[in-house]
Amino acid sequence: MDIRFHTPLTAKEQLDFGLDAPQPLALADKVRFAELDPLNHVNNKAYIEWFETLRVSYFDNLCAFCYEGLETPRLVIRSANIHYIREMVMDEIYVTTARVTRFRNTSFTIEQQLWSGDLRATLTGVMVVLRPDGSGRYPLPQTLREVFVKRDGATPEG
């Protein structure tokens, strides 16, 4: 199967790759030698980097437009829970996905998945939105709240 790397995948491409449902953002890549541990399995640190790269892309491509005319926020991870399901090895092609599942006034929960034939790992993280200088929390714009609900199927909390 041919797959485009480092470019958002369409819903059809995601399903063709084996995902159980299309996500708002999915990017494909390939395991590199530098990501392996001494046992030739992907090092746990690499999974974290893959998820972080996708989170940045998720905000830049799917959320930043909601801040037009406003100060660009600082996003920080309050907590993250990674579940490693099955190992990865050299040259495996994988797809990472992201969607927001819940949100509050100044934070949101992001669900990420890693696929390579089947589900290999998941990450659930709580992202806190801060003012650009880090001086305090920064409320989510109403447009972003609406996008989370409509595009990602997220639910408001509190």
UniProtKB/TrEMBL annotation:
Pfam families: 4HBT_2 (PF13279). InterPro entries: HotDog_dom_sf. Gene3D superfamilies: Hotdog Thioesterase. This is Uncharacterized protein. It comes from Falsiruegeria mediterranea M17.
